[in-house]
Amino acid sequence: MADENTNEVVAPVxxxxxxPTEGRGPGRGRGNRGGGDRNRGDRGGRxxxxxxxxxxxxxxxxxxxEKLVHINRVSKTxxxxxxxxxxxxxxxxxxxxxxxxxxxxxREVPEAISKATAAAKKAMVRVPLKEGRTLHHDGLGHFGAGxxxxxxxxxxxGIIAGGPMRxxxxxxxxADVVTKSNGTSNPYNMIRATFAxxxxxxxxxxxxxxxxxxxxxxxxxGGASVEVAAADAEAIVE
Length: 238
Known about the structure:
With 238 residues, this protein is an alpha+beta fold.
């Protein structure tokens, strides 16, 4: 570009046309960075919520007793052949009268166990215990071809049970019990029958509350004196 007065060629100023571009470039960059910060903030928020859930799971896991009852290899027939996996049966309890069972399937054993454990924690039930060591009364459980009998026992008897049933009572916190299993030896049916028998357990306090009476009145029906019935009623923990 030439000047009419001096006939000199005036060079364009460097960056005159690039300035708007540079202005737009950083603007877009700042916008992207801002959006990225917002995204990172969202991810951070989700991460904090996940951490809180993880802490609650860890707190619950510290108090729970996990028993692996059975692992079975399973297969699924698909178009290309068979896919093999594993099925796990797990019993979970806190040792203070709460227990549950669950099963899970996965391609690997650890994943199947974790799924079964999570299912067992969600299905935990409370069973009233006498003196915190045995059952209040005898019970019968039935599921499918499995039939089990559970009986209360005096102190020092121990857990007289085998296989899957022992895992249930150990995780439940029962120290003295006598059991018998008839019919099938399938661990799934035995576990379900055992929990069916435990679900029928009741405590004197719950029976007295349901009938609108005192615990001592129920105990006196067995022929005990007023003093003995009152002492036994005070000694009942559950």
